[in-house]
Amino acid sequence: MADGFREPAYGERSLGDVVPAAAAALGHPLGDPPTGLDLPDAASYVVFLIDGLGANLLQRHADAAPYLSSLLARSAPGTAGVPSTTSTSLTSLGTGMTPGGHGLVGFTTRVPGTDQLLNHLLWDAEVDPKEWQPHPTAFARLQASGVQVSVVNKREFNGTGLTTAAHRGADYVGVDRVGERIAAVVGASGGRPGQTSLTYVYDGDLDWTGHRWGVASSQWLQQLSMIDHEAEQLRGRPP
């Protein structure tokens, strides 16, 4: 670490290691080089991604998120990739690859052979996300191995370019409210008797609030507190 920059722990403790590590813990390793992230064996995993929240912010505002901050002492923090923008990070999580591997290497990228920029969040109907990111996702590979894989996210994100590039191959569950989100996770993670499952759930409200009002604003702290309660319920509700 130099000048405040922490090198991404690719292959050890990065976002791209989460799903491969969960796959191995579920008894369905993906066959890639093993990740250094070691998770306990289980029949079901829920991956809860809170956009815009890192370990340093959580530690700094622990009073607003007592449940989440209590988890910091249990293991070392992981790392995002470079750049740590949403589209790159979500694709690393869903594909199990580094940014250079999956190709979504920024908030915007020039479309080859043109002078146009592709915004990875908004996408462009003329750009095929399966051609832009042609590799099978880790979600799809895990689903093909017999694991029930579900993505719980906002209804408006279903079928978008970013979702297709990053998370295709999983069953999509559209939700818009916190109560719906928790209920969907409980339902998806329960699965069928005897079947293993991986459920990914995304919350972008804190990130939106931070962009709109600023980190550590009263609005942001209130949103963090709400997400802390959501995380605690998600931890206690699934079977």
Please summarize what this structure is:
The chain is an alpha/beta fold and 239 residues long.
Structure description:
With 239 residues, the protein is an alpha/beta fold. The protein has one domain: Alkaline Phosphatase, subunit A (3-Layer(aba) Sandwich), CATH 3.40.720. The protein has eleven helices and six strands. It has helices at residues 15-25, 55-60, 66-70, 86-95, 99-102, 129-132, 138-144, 161-167, 178-190, 205-213, 218-236; strands spanning 44-50, 108-110, 117-119, 148-153, 171-174, 197-203. The chain has a four-stranded parallel sheet, sandwiched between helices. The chain has a two-stranded antiparallel sheet with strand order 2-3. The mean pLDDT is 94.
Secondary structure elements and pairings:
Elements: H1 15-25, E1 44-50, H2 55-60, H3 66-70, H4 86-95, H5 99-102, E2 108-110, E3 117-119, H6 129-132, H7 138-144, E4 148-153, H8 161-167, E5 171-174, H9 178-190, E6 197-203, H10 205-213, H11 218-236
Helix pairs in contact: 1-4, 4-8, 10-11
Under CATH, the topology can be stated as Alkaline Phosphatase, subunit A
Which secondary-structure class do the elements indicate? alpha/beta
Taking pLDDT < 50 over at least 5 consecutive residues as the criterion, the unreliable ranges are none
Oligomeric status of the shown chains? single chain
Radius of gyration, whole Å: 17 Å
Net shape? globular
CATH architecture: 3-Layer(aba) Sandwich
Series of secondary-structure elements, N-terminal to C-terminal: HEHHHHEEHHEHEHEHH
Mean pLDDT metric? 94
* Residues in helix, %: 25-40%
Which sequence of strands runs across the widest sheet? 1-6-4-5
Major sheet: 4 strands, parallel
Query: Any idea how many domains?
Result: 1
The helix tally amounts to: 11
Beta content? 5-15%
Kindly state the number of beta strands: 6
Distance between the termini: 40 Å
CATH class, named Alpha Beta
Report the CATH superfamily. Answer: Alkaline Phosphatase, subunit A
